[in-house]
Amino acid sequence: MTELSQTFLGVIAAATAVMALVQVGAIVFLARVALQVREVAATIQRDVRPLIARATAVAEEASKAATIATAQAQKIDRLVTELARRVDDTSAILQTAIVTPAREGLAIFAAVKAGLAALRGLRDRRGRSGGVEEEDALFIG
Predict the structure, then answer these.
(1) In 10 A of CB 121, how many CB atoms?
(2) What is the pTM of this model?
(3) Cα–Cα–Cα angle for 62, 67, 73, nearest 5°?
């Protein structure tokens, strides 16, 4: 082998050694980056777990509150319905107990008034029996 071949062979060997060193360096660097990424992921996971637990607790409380609110709304609806029914019943009772007898009382009062008016009318006619003839004489027809 000639000296030139040996030189090229030495250059190739040196280049291969440099490439091997670069590759080892890249592997070491990537291993460190992978460790850092793993640590960051663990930190994020550790920090996020309490947040997820809190969010779950808040969601459960919201669900309980919604259930309670629904039950309360149904209870209020039943109470309002019952109140409306009782108001209607009370109105009917008042109608029967007060208004109907009041109408009957007014009818009796009107009957007594009409009777008194009829008696007055009879009394007035007896007192004016001669006055009617005088009016007939004045009538022009």
Answers:
(1) 10
(2) 0.44
(3) 120
* Model pLDDT for residues 10-45, shown as the tens digit of each residue: 999 999 999 999 999 999 999 999 999 999 999 999
114: exposed, middle or buried (Cβ count in 10 Å: 0-12, 13-18, 19+): exposed
Instruction: Report the number of secondary-structure helices (H) and strands (E) in the chain.
Output: 3, 0
* CA dist 67 → 7, 46, 56, 64, 75 (Å): 86, 32, 16, 5, 12
Q: Which amino acid is at 77?
A: D
Token pair for 33? 């980056």
Distances from the Cα of 25 to the Cαs of 16, 17, 21, 136, in angstroms? Answer: 14, 12, 6, 147
CA gap 79, 90 in Å, rounded: 16
Phi-psi region of 2 (alpha: psi -120 to 50; beta: other; left: phi over 0): beta
pLDDT at 106: 83
Measured distance CA(88)–CA(66) in Å, rounded:
33
Q: Is 139 helix (H, G, I), strand (E, B) or coil?
A: coil
Residue 141 CA to residue 132 CA, distance in Å, equals 16
pLDDT at residue 98, as a whole number:
81
